[in-house]
Amino acid sequence: MAHLVCRCGYDMWNGESPNDIEFWVYSDKTMDEISMEDNIPFLSLHSKHDHNVWRCPKCGRLYVFSENGGTVPEHIYRLEE
Questions:
Q1: Would you list the domain boundaries of the chain?
Q2: Residue 4 — pLDDT band, cuts 50, 70, 90?
Q3: Cβ(54)–Cβ(12) under 8 Å?
Q4: What's the average model confidence in pLDDT over 15-42?
Q5: What is the pLDDT of residue 26?
């Protein structure tokens, strides 16, 4: 469970499950590798993601975290329109 205050001031928290803040992103290559495995426990998908992305429900800003589970975003994206 973690908190992140968006640049717009909204306090995001991923402590609820499920939540509308946190997204797990898989590349096409990673999905191919996962689909080749015979038996994939659902919880193991969490550890195979390429990026963890948080979306602010107030302003829509995206915070992209690295695959190694860092606590500081690698990239921050703001909607243009």
A1: 3-30+48-77
A2: very high
A3: yes
A4: 76
A5: 76
Rounded Cα distance between 38 and 75, Å, is: 34
At residue 33, the 3 state secondary structure works out as helix
Beta-carbon neighbour count of residue 38 at 10 Å? 4
The answer to whether the CB of 62 falls within 8 A of the CB of 76 is yes
Mean pLDDT of 43-58: 73
Q: Which amino acid is at 48?
A: K
Q: Between vectors from CA 1 to CA 48 and to CA 69, what angle results, nearest 5°?
A: 35
- Mean pLDDT, all residues of the chain: 80
> Which H/E stretch holds residue 51?
strand 51-55
- Name the nearest CA neighbour of 27 among 12, 45, 49: 49
- CA–CA dist 56, 7 (Å, integer): 9
